[in-house]
Amino acid sequence: MHPSFQRLLLVRSFVLMRRLQRDRRGVAAIEFAIIVPVMLVMFLATVEVTSGIAVDRKVTLVARTLSDLVSQSTSVTDNDLKNVFAASYGVLTPYSATPVKATITEVFVNKNQVATVQWSKTGTVTQSGSSATATVTNSTRQAGDAITIPDGLKVANTYLIFSEVSYQYQPTVAYFIPQAGISLTDQSYTRPRQSLCVLYGTTVCPTN
């Protein structure tokens, strides 16, 4: 190859490299392609965390609503408890009430400040559209079972309405939260308001 041609080729290559170095066309598209996946991940993570926090807050409200409604009664039946469970689950709107499981228990604190179960019922819900139907069954807590409560609530010869709520939160995007979901739980204690205790299946306040 002739030396002059080599020099010409070298000069043109140098000029082309300088032009490419100064050329900013397409930079925005490249930066966008790099940033979008990161922004998308951050957005989806924010949505999941925000949704989880909202459901957790509603689980707390369900627990408080359950104990509050039952504590306002002097006695309850299974039908009463079905209505209470169904009404409490309405707090979860717009989230599904199907993953929720709740238990309502009456606790008696004896003169020795030992807390025992008087009665206990578990409620689950079947949701169809905007309506929810609750089913009441016996809970795993049996009458007479000892139960642990906060020391501040151990007032001798008093009763407590104790609610427990659990919710299996299922993520929309499984990359950020385990696909099996996260169990959200809360509890609430309320003292009977209208009488010494809330009767269930008896005519006098039990003291077992």
What does this structure look like?
This protein is an alpha+beta fold and 208 residues long. Helix content is 37%, strand content 25%. A hairpin with a 2-residue loop joins β2 (115-128) and β3. The model has no long low-confidence stretch (mean pLDDT 82). The chain crosses the membrane at residues 27-47. Pfam families: TadE. It comes from Rhodopseudomonas palustris.
In short:
By secondary structure, this protein is α+β, with helices and mostly antiparallel strands. The protein has 3 helices and 5 strands, in the order H-H-H-E-E-E-E-E.
Judged by helices, strands and strand pairing, the structural class is alpha+beta
- What would the average pLDDT be, to the nearest integer? 82
Give the distance, in angstroms, between the N- and C-terminal Cα atoms: 109 Å
The fraction of residues in strands falls at 25-35%
**Number of helix segments?**
3
Strand order of the largest sheet: 3-2-1-4-5
Helix % is: 25-40%
Structural shape: rod-shaped
List the helices and strands in order. HHHEEEEE
Number of strands: 5
Tell me about the largest β-sheet: 5 strands, antiparallel
What's the alpha carbon Rg, rounded to whole Å? Answer: 31 Å
